[in-house]
Amino acid sequence: MPTSPHGREVTIKPCLVGAVLALVLTAIPFGLVAARALRPMQIFVVVGAAAITQVVVHLRYFLHLDLKPSSQTKLIALCFAAVVLFILVGGTLWIMFDLNYRR
Amino acid sequence: MTDAVVTAGAGEETEAERALDERAYGFWIYLMSDAIIFALLLATFVVMSHNTADGPGGQTLFRLPHTFAKTMLLLASSTTFGFASVAIAAGQRRRALAWLSVTFLLGLGFVAMGISEFYGMAAAGAGPWRSGFLSAFFTLVGTHGTHVSVGLVWIVLLGCEVALRGLNPFVASRLCRLGLFWHFLDIVWIGIFSVVYLPAIL
User: Fold this and answer.
1) Structural domains in chain B?
2) Confidence class for position B21, pLDDT limits 50, 70, 90
3) What value does the mean pLDDT of chain A take?
4) Which residues does A25 contact at the CB level (< 8 Å), separation at least 6?
5) Which tens digits make up the pLDDT trace of A17-33?
6) B40 near A CB under 8 A
7) A56 and A18 share a domain?
8) Are residues A53 and A73 in the same domain?
9) Quick check: B13 pLDDT over 80?
10) What was the pLDDT predicted at B1?
11) Which of A3, B8, B29, B77 has the most CB atoms around its CB within 10 Å?
């Protein structure tokens, strides 16, 4: 079994599974927007859900970030970045939309 | 250092492997900081998304087929980079170079389409100077495109190293970090097309 510098087995299967899943998760939002098959608000929700799912697919199948001990340090760094992001992005949007409301 | 990696028993982590692991982790931390930059650029865009200053908006400027093609190019390039990674791990130099070349061409297509889109918009008077919305758009998508372009240069440099010096644990480790960078950019693009292009076209 070919191994990466980190001793992990590297096969082609995760690439193919990830590619197919990502393709489907891209086709759905693009298709919905092209066809306008639902109300706009509903389409936004589906686009958002598909985006988040596709990010997870990329992390799992392309970046090999799973719940195993070998991925733990990267996962912790990712969660910390997510917390910082939540504060910064959430705070920015909150402040700017509040300012806009007050005019 | 190479000998230590080769003669280590299965399951043992050598000094060398740990050093390479640390490099990948360090690069991952850089990617997290980059993720914060992109997220804030996205947030800025969202704040500015209605500030079109009586100029053209996304409805007029963005085209679905163009965006879909760019998305497919980048997704395909991520997949082919994955194939290259498999070849690198298996020590197959020719195959690795072939897949890296395909990845490069797909990425080049993506950047070319991006430049053509920017040029078209600027020529039609919808450049970054036109409105807050457009400033935010050009900054966000331009920063992403610049990252991809740097990635392309990196692919060429590592490709040359593989071609001239063959595969070894060091170049494999560098290619691993390039892979992290390349897949990360595809993840950022998911955010961009979901938040910038699709809602505007709808």
Assistant:
1) 14-49+72-201 (1.20.120.80)
2) confident
3) 90
4) A50, A51, A53, A54, A57
5) 999 999 999 999 999 99
6) yes
7) yes
8) no
9) no
10) 46
11) B77
- My answer on whether A55 and A80 are in the same domain is no
Query: pTM score, two decimals?
Result: 0.91
Closest chain A CA to residue B180? A63
Same domain, A42 and A74: no
CB contact B34 to A (< 8 Å): no
Same-domain check for residues A46 and A88: no
Do A72 and A60 share a structural domain?
A: no
- Domain of residue A103: give its range: 68-103
pLDDT above 70 coverage of chain B, percent: 94
Q: Which of B95, B190, B196 to mutate to probe the A interface, most A CBs <10 Å?
A: B190
Its ipTM equals: 0.90
Task: Please count the structural domains in chain A.
Answer: 2
- Residue B36 near chain A (CB below 8 Å): yes
Interface test mutation site (partner A, options B6, B15, B32, B71, max chain A beta carbons within 10 A): B32
One domain, residues A10 and A60: yes
Q: What is the pLDDT of residue B11?
A: 54
* B143 has a chain A CB within 8 A of its CB: no
Within this chain, do residues A52 and A76 fall inside the same structural domain, yes or no?
no
Q: Where does the pLDDT of residue B12 fall: very low under 50, low under 70, confident under 90, or very high at 90 and above?
A: low
Of B20, B43, B183, the CB nearest to A93: B43
pLDDT at A6: 54
